[in-house]
Model the fold of this input.
Amino acid sequence: MKGILHFITGAPWWVSALLAYLLYIGFKATKPQTIWLPRLFILPILLTSLFLINLLQGPTIQLDVLAAYFVSFIVGSMISWFIVRRVQLTFDKPKLLLTLPGSYITLIILISLFSFKYYCGYIEATQPTQLPTYWVYLKTIPSGFFSGLSMGQALTYLYRFLQA
Done:
């Protein structure tokens, strides 16, 4: 029980603020909403940028880690396309607006990614020894997958917008 309390209470204040914001965004996405088309690309660009910044901060650029990220990114994009390709959308082409139905997919993606990153940060902060080599891949592949899910969704909606 003490370990679980430390896991939850040992985080900086901004982690709680980030969780609250992600929950707000996720629950907002469960209701139909009209959004500006370029806004769809904010999350995937942000997630990919954070990964690349993190990768570039290391002593060397590991091409195998980069390859693992992009393979999982492509897999996530393809799965996202399969999930959202038949979603009913309404378009306002002159204003670049798109009306999305409510869905729990965004909430699930955001909470899953937050939980995964929180767990990784906790493990890295509490392990007194060097983590195994495969740890890099355990962090990289889900990051690429979640980034791919959000980019696949955005690209699928963009394609359908352009075809309408």
The longest strand covers residues 33-36. Residues 2-163 form one domain. The chain has six helices and three strands. The chain has one domain: 2-163.
